[in-house]
Amino acid sequence: MTARSTASLRETVVVTGLGATTPLGGDVASTWAGMLAGRSGVVPLTDSWAERLPVRIAARAAVDPAEIVGRVQARKLDRCEQLALVAARAAWADAGIDDIDPERLGVSVSSGIGGISSTITAYDNLNSRGWDRISPYTVPMLMPNGAAGWISMEIRAQAGAHSPVSACASGSEAIGYGMDMIRSGRADVVVAGGTEAAIMALNIGAFAAMRAMSKRNDEPERASRPFDKARDGFVLGEGAGILVLESLSHARRRGATIYAIAAGAGYSSDAHHISHPAPDASGAIAAIGRALADGGVSAEQVVHVNAHATSTPEGDALEAQGVAKALGSAADDVIVTSTKSMTGHLLGGAGAVESVAAIMALRDKVAPPTINLEDLDESVPLRIATEPTPLTRRGNAPMAVLNNAFGFGGHNVALVFTTA
Amino acid sequence: MTEQEILEGLGEIVEEIAGVPAADVTPAKSFVDDLDIDSLAMVEIAVAAQDKFGVEIPDDQLKDLATVQDVVTFVIKNTES
To answer: A43: which strand partners?
Structure first.
């Protein structure tokens, strides 16, 4: 097979560091513990700006990143950049790389929306106080590549800092881009992931105008319910997830601890509608198939899928049918979860945080639950975990986990991780 | 306003914006070389100084204010008239 022979010639990419700050916790350990405990991070929005909105719930980051980066840096970084920096520092420390040529170190960190709060604050200042009262940091705060730039300075990465933007697939696409940087020989190590901090009036109003959000305001913790019959839209979350990707040869030379192999990335675009998925899930099916082919992974190796499933009526059912088709008969044994039931939807941070979750599931051989799944939609032909579920290998090939991420614009990204 | 009061006021601004302890904001210090303040933070400091001391600092003169003493002198000169 062509895909296999290509895979055997290029550098293998491994994951040697993880970082996250999410609605469930300020780091990977607390986030993962929260997921296994089936804890919801969704809270009521008590801010006065929320009163005029139909949606008054969201999943706030558990730890305020401004408290960690400090007052002076917080003035210069949008909240989404602060979250990314916090997660990147943790991932970098976790990887424990003491010595690397800056020319061989890259960054690929993206955001779906960028510094939307900074944009609005600056616009308000412009109108009320004049142009010279806008923070001179406004442009670097609003640009979606800001986080990548700040992280590159923090770790002195000079191989390139990138931010492939694809709405809610951005975090996954950034990881895929980071894998490509290593495979193509441009870098030995890439800090990759996604971030978002968009819990504010305009953003919630705009998603509500699309009728995409849950209005279960009276029951915040029960609002995000992927695959459940009573789901009524997504719950907005915020946070960041970061992986340290490294060539296997570099990781071996320094005796690094390896979490997983970043085996494959698959992309497709629906070319169908700007926000609705293709009705036959063809884009999702293509992305999953390409990710498996890219990694030389068979459907039978896949034991767990961290689904994109955001809790929208249309999206969850189509994704489930797409996963079932893409994996064929092997899908019957796969344990599927949507951790968005607990974290809400982190938009550009989603694919990255969920990749962290998928890798932790692979490491601990357990799939976290999908909470609030009380009445499974009968159009979902998959085994959805409702409690922590052990993952067991089938046959002798390494276990694989799949992470899906889809974004408005028809972007589909699937990532496959396997045991090292 | 005395020179000492201006110096102290400027120290508070620099500490707030750039995180440099006010006590380190002494007359001979260069903003760029000694206090590690970049051009964007310098714009913020100038705007805050204008508000605090009631002076106008035009952009073409801001680039000449290299040291703490330069700003103090500028404020004194432009609040006298």
So the answer is: A58
pLDDT in tens, B47-75: 999 999 999 999 999 999 999 999 999 99
Distance CA A202, CA A226 (A): 25
Active site residue B38: yes
Integer Cα distance of A113 and A144 in angstroms: 7
All residues of chain B having their beta carbon less than 8 Å from the beta carbon of residue A77 are none
Tell me which residue range forms the domain holding B31. 3-80
Task: Enter the CATH code of domain A263-418.
Answer: 3.40.47.10
Chain B positions in Cβ-Cβ contact with residue A129 (cut-off 8 Å): none
Q: Look up the pTM and report it.
A: 0.95
The answer for residues whose C-beta is within 8 angstroms of residue A91's C-beta and 6 or more apart is: A17, A18, A19, A191, A193, A242, A243, A244
Give yes or no for A130 touching B (CB within 8 A).
Answer: no
Query: How many domains does one find in chain B?
Result: 1
* Calpha distance A156→A220 (Å, rounded): 41
User: What class has domain A13-253?
Assistant: alpha beta
Contacts of B17 in chain A (CB under 8 A): 72, 75
Residue A319 · residue A368 · CB < 8 Å = no
Secondary structure (DSSP) of A90-117: HHHHHHT-----GGGEEEEEEESS-SHH
Which of B47, B50, B59 has the most A C-beta neighbours within 10 Å, making it the best mutation to test the interface with A? B47
The predicted-structure confidence for A83-112, as pLDDT tens digits, reads as follows 999 999 999 999 999 999 999 999 999 999
Nearest to A72 among B19, B40, B47 (CB): B19
